[in-house]
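Appendix B. Raw example, untouched.
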Amino acid sequence: MTAGMVTEAELERSGVLTRSLHSRALILKALGARPAGVAKQ
């Protein structure tokens, strides 16, 4: 395995994780902004 290949794989994994976490954060913010009281109760 070449260092470049490993780096690319790590970047891809980190990129996917970052995108999924970012999208989740946006969704949670969107949901929490409107029915926050309902969700907490």
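End of appendix B.
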